[in-house]
Each structure stands twice: as structure tokens, then as C-alpha cells.
């Protein structure tokens, strides 16, 4: 393969991609990356206004995108979005299950309601997205690529996030199981497992209610994470989006059932 051909394989021109959680953080960065590489992107988020903002940012830079309001924990809504996108765009080539929430607390005191809430979004929401996208992709001669958001928490235990870790570990096994079933239909299923990344989820520790950043608190949170990471750095959403783009593109055409770990080295599996 010539160098230029290999480089071009990282592009996704002509592909239709759906990204959940596209209103902020890793979801937004992934939507921007896919659009920048040539895809038509449906930006979905439970907060429809943020999804619309991401889509507008893409179109302002010459890309093609549409916003959609989506609660990934509602199966019928996920199915309806997949059906609508497939009908309007002639198929779905990439589906990124990025939407997620965080619930914290000591294991022994974890309320059942908190467990149910995080399972409904971080595990069932991915399950529903995989099903909806997979049903479309198995009917397409070219198949498709599904990318799920796991976490370093699936590999390395941390205190007070057991419910989150359960979900992310489940996503890993779901990814592998689905990949085994749909591979014969040219559908690839992979996951990304980020380490500590500066997003709205991690920013809850140092972002004030008015949206401003408490810089002293931010450094107090970030410094130990940076020190703990072999690369002595923390991630940005774009670091994860690069992995998403790779998995969405033909550059990863021989990869399925795998977990990419852009985590600075905190989990070396």
C-alpha cells in the first residue's frame, strides 16, 4: 500500500455517522473529528441545544451535520433515531456510543436508584445503540463500525465509582460478544477506554455553578492524576477522538472486538 493511500484510509468521506453524547466532551470532539475527516454526522445528546450547537459548529466550518435530541436510556427513541437516519441518509456507517454519566459514592452505601440510573445510561444505553445500529449495518454490503465508550475504570479499580466501573467493564464484554456475532456481516465493533480526560464529567470537581473554573481546585484534582500517569500528563477530548476516528475509518478495517486505551499508561493491559 502506498503512503498516500494509507493516509487516505483514515478519512471517512461519504460515511454517515451517529455520535451520542455529542453535546460536550469526548462526544463533541469525536463528532468534530469525524466531520473534519469527511463524514456526515448526526450529533445526538439528551440536551438537544448542545447537540445543535455542535452540529452548527461543524456546518460553520464547511462540514455536514444535524442535531438530534436523544435519551439513550429509552430504547424506542434510540431505535427511532437509527431508523430515521438510515432512511434519510441511505444507511449508517459509523455509530459511536459515547453518552455517559457518573455516579459516585462508597460501595457499601450505594443506593439502588443510583445503580439503576447509571446502568440505564452507561450500559443499557450502549446496548440499545449497538442493537439499533447493528440492525441497520448487517443489511448493508459494506457493513459498518460501532465504537463504544468504556474507561480505564474497567481495568484499574478506583474508590467510590464501583457502579461506573461495572458499566464500563460490561461495555468491554458487550463489545467483544457483539463483534463475534456480526463480524461475518462486515460489521466491526470496538471500544475506547480513556484515562483521566478533562471533560464536563471530570470538571464537576472544579467548575463552579456559573460555569467558571476554580483554578486552584482544578490543579488540586489534576496534579495527582498527572503524577500517577506514566506519561505525566492528562488527556484532552481530542486525544480520545483520534482513537474514535481511527476505529471509524478503513484504517482499522482488520480490527474488531478490541479495546483501544488512550490513557497515558495508567492501565497497561
Textual characterization of the structure:
There is one protein chain. This protein is 44% helix and 13% strand. The protein starts with a helix and ends in a 9-residue tail after the last strand. The protein has a seven-stranded parallel sheet, with helices on both faces. It has helices at 3-8, 25-36, 48-60, 75-89, 112-137, 162-182, 215-228, 237-248, and strands at residues 16-20, 40-45, 64-69, 94-97, 144-149, 187-192, 259-260. Helix 2 packs across helix 8 and helix 5 (112-137) packs parallel to helix 6. It has 269 residues and is an alpha/beta fold. The protein has eight helices and seven strands.
List the helices and strands and how they pair.
Elements: H1 3-8, E1 16-20, H2 25-36, E2 40-45, H3 48-60, E3 64-69, H4 75-89, E4 94-97, H5 112-137, E5 144-149, H6 162-182, E6 187-192, H7 215-228, H8 237-248, E7 259-260
Parallel strand pairs: 1-2, 1-4, 2-3, 4-5, 5-6, 6-7
Helix pairs in contact: 2-3, 2-8, 4-5, 5-6
